[in-house]
Design goal:
Rossmann fold; six-stranded antiparallel β-sheet
Length: about 600
């Protein structure tokens, strides 16, 4: 894992002016949190590359850009991520590559490109974003993994193509952050999600998942090397269980490989418990004990209020699992003061407003976990591909023409001024984004109308909700130089489950039945059949009051960016109304308090970047 950045221009000669080394060093420093174990830069006449390195698989991975000559042709690469099929890739390359092979993923990819060209990218199984500069062709390539687990932003700035793992690297180059109406459409229409390929900042883009770009001179061409495909599912129910179990086991097993000790985030839910159980089993083969971590909030035992989205606390189920797998467990807690103060840190990590207190607490928890560990496997991604979210089971979602996790726009728009609403039209922006995704849904002609709609829900969730949570996990973890792995994000699972019919995914009405079948011999019955409960959030009433006081304070500041965006009278009325924790405006968790946190983040974000 690392942070990568760089720039490219055919007409330049970056080696002739010392200021380019200073700029490249500045870009490198802006991403130092992503790779505290080493860094390096390299300048060529037409390109500059920077890399920060986090050791996780191979401790001998090179600090900076890797160069690998093959005959008369040579190239360099900067790489963020890791391959989970490195051994298979090297075996494939054996007839072509004659240089000494190290364990570096960077060398494997670069050697594959030099031997087999762009077609080699289809062979990669992992989470990654990389840039290759081909000296002979004077060609820059930017590539991103299939599911979008690792970020890669870019912008054409004058005649120069600038790229980086995070927007802050592009700003370090000298690109000024700017917003336009589309930016606000993203923030208020679909946020805290982002439209695939859009970076929210004006003129900045992100390489699409499953794509690579080729840039020669000022010409940019996008190539899609992977996408979900709709097709008939011919396996029987028993065969489906067997294949899903095999894929789950294989994905988790591959991701237990590390140059540093492996740990797991354990919530006591089905997803993280299954990952932890398999990890513990794998580590036990070599006499190792698994470290696990759980997250909760001070006072939740007293303040918790069950609702349709969060029916139980995590702690009792975590205790069951810790006893069951014999892990070395650490309970991490966050209070309201810390969570409020970390709202701004969460923006620093993401460069954007995000899931408010959810993301803020995750930044804090992972920061604390990073003092003891460097790599953790999570249960992220299971609900998206196995159909675990409430909207997969809500009858109205089969007919609602909207994002199912944000089916009521009224709440998110309730505090905005009428002039601002008229200017950016966030409801129209969200509708168009939804319709564009529906039109792009990979279909199968043999689907019934209901099954076709369920396929749309799956594709919407994969393209939007899953990518949002993967972004969240990457940015909150890498902010502390910590690697969070997502074995349920393996593209082979996504490909297979996309075509499994609903009557198998939800056999006999059992939510995530295929995953339950996978875990039958590994998990206690209470955990196996626990009703889905999402990431924990605080129920401390003092927290909401704290946020409300801060928001009203912001709205009285003469230079607040929220003035003209948030209606002060509407905000006062909102704060005097009873809270409703059971009706989220985004996902399962973002209700009243999270709206306040989101607005405070927007205010900080706009001030920080002088937007």
């Amino acid at each position: 894992m690392s942070g990568i950045a760089g720039f490219y221009q055919t007409a330049a000669d970056y080696t002739q002016d010392s200021r380019w080394r200073l700029i490249l060093n500045k870009m490198n420093k802006s991403l130092s949190h992503r790779g505290p174990d080493g860094s390096g830069i390299r300048l060529e006449p037409h390109a500059g590359f920077s890399q920060n390195r986090l050791s996780s698989i191979c401790l001998s991975e090179e600090n900076g850009p890797v160069t690998l000559p093959k005959g008369e042709r040579n190239a360099m690469i900067v790489f963020n991520g890791e391959l989970f099929n490195s051994a298979e890739c090297k075996l494939l390359l054996k007839p072509y590559v004659h240089y000494k092979q190290a364990c570096s993923d960077s060398e494997t990819i670069l050697g594959g490109y030099l031997s087999l060209g762009n077609d080699f990218f289809r062979q990669l199984n992992g989470v990654f974003a990389f840039a290759i500069y081909d000296h002979e062709l004077d060609l820059l390539i930017l590539c991103r993994d299939r599911i979008g687990a690792k970020p890669l932003f870019y912008q054409q700035y004058g005649q120069t193509l600038v790229f980086g793992s995070e927007p802050k690297a592009l700003f370090a180059y000298g690109i000024p952050p700017e917003l336009d109406n589309e930016s606000f459409g993203e923030i208020f229409g679909v946020g805290p999600a982002r439209t695939l390929g859009k970076a929210v900042f004006k003129n900045m883009k992100e390489v699409l998942p499953g794509h690579f770009l080729t840039i020669r001179g000022s010409h940019i061409e996008a190539h899609q090397y992977w996408q979900l495909q709709g097709k008939e599912h011919s396996d029987s129910y028993e065969e489906t269980i067997e294949k899903v179990s095999g894929l789950v086991y294989d994905s988790i097993r591959r991701q237990t490989t590390s140059g540093t000790p492996i740990s797991c985030f354990l919530s006591g839910g089905l997803d993280s418990s299954l990952v932890s159980a398999i990890c513990a089993k794998e580590l036990a083969r070599s006499g190792q004990q698994l470290d696990t971590y759980s997250f909760d909030f001070t006072g939740n035992t007293e303040n918790f209020r069950a609702n349709a989205f969060q029916s139980s606390l995590d702690r009792p189920f975590v205790d069951i699992m810790v006893s069951h797998i014999g892990s070395n467990h650490t309970y991490l807690f966050c209070d309201s003061d810390i969570q409020t103060n970390y709202l701004e840190k969460a923006v620093d990590a993401a460069d954007l407003p995000n899931m408010g207190d959810i993301e803020a607490s995750l930044v804090y928890f992972i920061e604390n976990a990073s003092f003891q560990s460097q790599v953790a496997l999570t249960g992220e991604g299971a609900d998206e591909i196995f159909g675990g979210y409430p909207w997969f089971h809500r009858e109205s979602a089969l007919s609602e023409a909207c994002f199912p996790w944000a089916n009521d726009m009224s709440f998110r728009l309730a505090l905005l001024t009428e002039d601002f609403l008229e200017k950016i039209k966030p409801a129209d922006y969200a509708r168009k984004a939804y319709e564009k995704t529906i039109a792009a849904t990979p279909r199968y002609d043999g689907d019934s109308p209901v099954e076709a709609r369920r396929r749309e829900l799956s594709f919407l969730t994969f393209q939007w909700f899953m990518v949002t949570l993967l972004n969240r996990m990457d940015r909150t973890s890498m902010f502390s130089g910590f690697q969070a792995r997502v074995p349920f994000g393996d593209y082979r699972l996504a490909e297979y489950l996309y075509n499994v019919p609903w009557n198998m995914k939800c056999f006999n009405g059992i939510n995530k039945n295929l995953l339950i079948e996978t875990g039958k011999d590994l998990l206690p019955e209470k955990v196996l059949n626990r009703k889905k409960s999402p990431y924990p959030k605080t129920y401390d009433p003092a927290y909401e009051k704290m946020l409300g006081d801060r928001l009203m304070g912001v709205l009285t500041e003469g230079d607040s960016p929220l003035l003209g965006i948030v209606d002060k009278k509407k905000a006062e009325q909102f704060l005097s109304s009873p809270s409703d924790y059971g009706k989220p405006w985004y996902g399962q968790l973002m209700a009243g308090p999270q709206m306040l946190a989101y607005l405070l983040q927007i205010n900080y974000w706009m001030k920080k970047y002088r937007l």
